[in-house]
Amino acid sequence: MSFGNEARLAQFWNSRGTLLMASAALIGLFTLLSGFGDAEGFVHASKVWQDGRFVWSEALKSLAGFQFGMLTYWLALWKLSNFGVVTVETQTLFWFVATIIGVAVLSGRILRWPVVDQAVAIGVLAGLSWLMYRGAR
After folding, report:
1. What is the rounded CA–CA span in Å between residue 41 and residue 59?
2. Among 6, 15, 77, 115, which residue is least crowded by beta carbons within 10 Å?
3. pLDDT at residue 19 above 80?
4. CB-based contact 129:93 (threshold 8 Å)
5. Do 41 and 66 touch, CB atoms closer than 8 A?
6. What is the pTM of this model?
7. Any idea what DSSP says for residue 84?
8. pLDDT reported for residue 14
9. Domain extents in the chain
10. Rounded CA gap, 20 and 24, in Å?
11. 3-class DSSP state for residue 46?
């Protein structure tokens, strides 16, 4: 009848659960930031050539977006590796979804698509995600 040990054991598992939740939250945060950064890079990259001229300000914004995206992607990989997620397909899947959604939101054009086109886009994204997940097995 050692209640002290049981309390310490419960405290250990409770703190471990809190750490896992915090790590999962960091994975989500870093992945979203990575997707947002790369989406920003893609959106500005599409504006680099205007009227046959190279627009340096857009190129620098694009470069900054991609650099930020890569840095936060590395941070996401750090936390993913702690969870044992080491296959490139699975790691890329999280980034891919975040980036595609980021491009759609940042460009603003998806909001003008007909609902059926938005539904098809979600289906295609889900299908590609499924194939990447299956390839990681």
Report:
1. 9
2. 115
3. no
4. yes
5. yes
6. 0.74
7. T
8. 63
9. 3-135
10. 6
11. coil
Whole-angstrom distance, CA of residue 11 vs CA of residue 17: 10
List the structure tokens of 93. 């899947």
Enter the tokens of residue 109.
């054009």
Q: What share of the chain is helix, strand, coil (3-state, %, to 5)?
A: 85, 5, 15
> Residue 58 has which token pair?
């857009």
Q: Are 76 and 34 in contact (CB under 8 A)?
A: yes
Residue carrying the six token digits 């194939």 = 131
Whole-angstrom distance, CA of residue 59 vs CA of residue 45: 6
Q: Which two tokens stand for residue 40?
A: 């920003």
Residues 6+ apart with CB under 8 A from 75: 26, 30, 34
Q: How confident is the model at residue 61 (pLDDT cuts 50, 70, 90)?
A: very high
126, HSE (Cβ side, Cα atoms, 13 Å): 6
Helix axes 56-82, 88-107, angle to 10 degrees: 140
Say which DSSP state 113 is in: S
CA distance 109 to 56: 24
